[in-house]
Each structure stands twice: as C-alpha cells, then as structure tokens.
C-alpha cells in the first residue's frame, strides 16, 4: 500500500509540473495591470497606474509575453516605436521554472510568479532619486 501511495505521489507531482508548463506555453500572456509605488509623475499627471501614465498605445500597455516549449521567452509590444528596443543580434532569452517561479535568463533577479491564469512580475528601479516598485500582472489569453 505504501509503495502504491509513493508511486501515486510521484505521478501527481510530474503531471502537475507538465500541466503548469503547458499552461505557460499554450497561452499568450497580455498585460492586465501595472501598479507603481510611490505614485509617479509624468508631465503634470501623477498616478500609481503605470499603464495609464504611459498611455493606451504605449509599449507598456501593449506588452505580450510568450513562453515556447523549447525554452525561448519573448516579450513583444505593438505600441509606437516599440521595435526600437528589439536587438535582432542579441541572444534569445530563455525561461525555466522552479515551482511557481518563472526565471528569465535576461533578468534572473526578478522572476515571474504564476498563480492560476495570472503571471506577476515585480521590479524595482530608481528614477530622479526616487525608488519605485512596479508590479505588472499578465493574464493568459
């Protein structure tokens, strides 16, 4: 009986891993929200809604993430001038998963977290002497 339970536990663990990888690779992940703390000011507008600050046609507001089965990660956007940030000579970024953490080779210090149909990515940066935390949420489409 103990052997049967052990085999069942191993199968369940392996099937969950494959299910989560399949969820990543069979969906495109579109940005749903981006909150910045503290509020950022651009021009005369201050907000914690980063996508609102950037505008609906911006690169930030049109971002889509893709995770291929062969481990390649791509981030694309169709906003004005977004292609200026793409370097075709650069090596492609790869992804790997450890539990619910998705590690991207080009940004190992800030993994994505998957929970249900949402990916969350938290980054910190400094601009104009202010430290900001940006939390982006992507939804499977």
Essential attributes:
141 residues; alpha+beta; eight-stranded antiparallel beta barrel
What is the gist of this entry?
It contains two helices and nine strands, in the order H-E-E-H-E-E-E-E-E-E-E. It has 141 residues and is α+β, with helices and mostly antiparallel strands. An eight-stranded antiparallel barrel has the order 1-3-4-5-6-7-8-9.
What does this 3D model show about the protein?
Helix content is 21%, strand content 45%. The chain has 141 residues and is α+β, with helices and mostly antiparallel strands. An 8-stranded antiparallel barrel has the order 1-3-4-5-6-7-8-9. Strand 7 and strand 8 form a beta hairpin. The longest helix is centred in the first third of the chain and has 24 residues, at 2-25.
Average predicted confidence as pLDDT: 84
Number of strands: 9
How would you sum up the major sheet? 8 strands, antiparallel, barrel
Low-confidence stretches: 4-17
Number of contiguous helices:
2
For the termini, the CA-CA separation is 42 Å
Note the run of SSEs as H and E: HEEHEEEEEEE
Please state how the strands of the largest beta sheet are arranged side by side: 1-3-4-5-6-7-8-9
Radius of gyration of CA atoms, rounded to a whole number: 18 Å
Question: How large a portion of the residues is in β-strands, by DSSP E?
Answer: over 45%
Multimeric state of these chains?
Answer: single chain
Can you tell me the overall shape? globular
Percent of residues in helices: 10-25%
Which structural class is indicated by helix and strand composition? alpha+beta
């Amino acid at each position: 009986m103990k052997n049967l339970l052990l085999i069942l536990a191993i199968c369940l663990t392996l099937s969950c891993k494959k299910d989560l990888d399949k969820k990543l690779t069979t969906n495109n992940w579109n940005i749903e929200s981006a909150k910045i703390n503290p509020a950022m000011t651009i021009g005369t507008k201050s907000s914690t809604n980063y996508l609102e600050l950037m505008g609906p046609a911006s690169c930030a507001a049109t971002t889509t993430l893709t995770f291929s089965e062969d481990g390649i990660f791509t981030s694309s956007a169709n906003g004005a001038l977004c292609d200026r940030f793409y370097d075709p000579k650069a090596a492609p970024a790869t992804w790997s998963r450890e539990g619910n953490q998705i590690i991207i080779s080009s940004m190992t210090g800030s993994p994505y977290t998957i929970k249900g149909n949402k990916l969350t990515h938290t980054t910190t940066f400094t601009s104009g002497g202010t430290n900001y935390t940006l939390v982006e949420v992507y939804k499977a489409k």
